[in-house]
């Protein structure tokens, strides 16, 4: 246990984290890059070796891994969970939980739970991956309960209730902004009056600053970039994409970007001097970042007819490198798009559906993209892990393996909509019934 605490203590910043850990959403630097070596080139016959499976409750929250501990959130209920889009519940009772598991065997080390009534659409459970930093676990529930827990014991260090403390209203689909640690600050999407985003002291929970007002907080997570010679905190709420001074919360620049029904979910992605953000139904923008100061100019904007231009993801954050955006468009096809002008280079339905467009089409198809070396690991909504190569010329699949059954329901089909974690040369993935650890060691 002392070794575990020591390993957690090494997490002194979001950019100085052991390569073997996956301490937050989308990895050590929230960029979808998995840096471990010694990873399989292709799956063995019969798929990767399953090291363990552990029963858990429902939720969209992915796991976080630090040392030999796995942290994940779920929701325990007695009744059946009914997913109805665009419809809030009047009341749904259950226990929201933070679980700590042993990464070696999946056994529960500790759990923190509290009763919580859900009033949101798709009440399957928490949305946010825990953020683990410096011996603490920051866990944000679907109805705005923020807990800072001792990573060793699960004891509460401090807590906030966004609804009670900030008069925030739970978004239609719950609080989804994965908390971000920056220095001594924990930055959260809150949604209260003049408090779309709030920076808390990560050690005691005291407010450092609050910033921005919006009709709704949206669903995009806070994102840090460096451009124009300064660090910029990106916040995409229901009306605009904004850059803030992370130390004061002061607005540096703002660009209009109103997603329909506030459904801006992906985190903005930076590549070179360009910054991209997009959502369903033709919402997208690429901004040219000024290299000398915090400012932007518009390079291109999305169109309602997505043929030929742009990318419009539902609930995944694309991977961007060398001027190309790789992401799943709203209908469900993987696309490669030039960040500079929005030109679509190619598309393939295979990553998400395993079939061609002629064989099947889906609505709001989802897959999560992580890069390791020169290959991509893609976890799709069917519960499959795909190894593939993607470049500006096309998509080449190297193999796929079934890890989990899709247990959620959307648009008449079963889905898994939870971002996996990659650490210890393993993949950790969950559905609404279990979390699984499979070995990807060569």
Task: Explain the overall architecture.
This protein has 442 residues and is mainly β. The chain has one domain: Methylamine Dehydrogenase, Chain H (7 Propeller), CATH 2.130.10.10. It is 4% helix and 44% strand. It is built from 3 helices and 34 strands. The strands form 9 sheets. The protein has a 4-stranded antiparallel sheet, with no helix packed on it. The longest helix has 8 residues. The two termini are 28 Å apart.
Brief rundown of the structure:
The protein is mainly beta and 442 residues long. The protein is built from 3 helices and 34 strands.
List the helices and strands and how they pair.
Elements: H1 2-9, E1 50-55, E2 64-66, E3 69-76, E4 92-102, E5 108-118, E6 131-133, E7 136-140, E8 145-150, E9 156-161, H2 162-166, E10 180-182, E11 185-192, E12 195-201, E13 207-211, E14 223-227, E15 230-236, E16 240-244, E17 251-256, E18 269-271, E19 274-279, E20 283-289, E21 296-301, E22 319-321, E23 324-328, E24 334-338, E25 344-348, H3 350-353, E26 367-372, E27 375-380, E28 384-391, E29 394-402, E30 408-410, E31 413-415, E32 421-423, E33 426-430, E34 434-439
Antiparallel strand pairs: 1-34, 2-3, 3-4, 4-5, 6-7, 7-8, 8-9, 10-11, 11-12, 12-13, 14-15, 15-16, 16-17, 18-19, 19-20, 20-21, 22-23, 23-24, 24-25, 26-27, 27-28, 28-29, 30-31, 32-33, 33-34
